[in-house]
Amino acid sequence: MNGLSVMTGRLPYWDFTNLWGGGRIALEGHVGQLSDLESYRPALRALLSPWLLDQEWS
Description:
Distance between the termini: 28 Å
Shape: elongated
Oligomer: single chain
Order of helices and strands: HH
């Protein structure tokens, strides 16, 4: 598996990445990153994929 959706051929996006990734970031003690785009986006990319599109915590 390469992490891409079998349905779309793209990375899972938005709901999954925010809920799972944001939860992981918070569990690791970095809750402040959720409201700071300059640290949230790189943290999500480090967890999931360097090709993840820009997004913000919902």
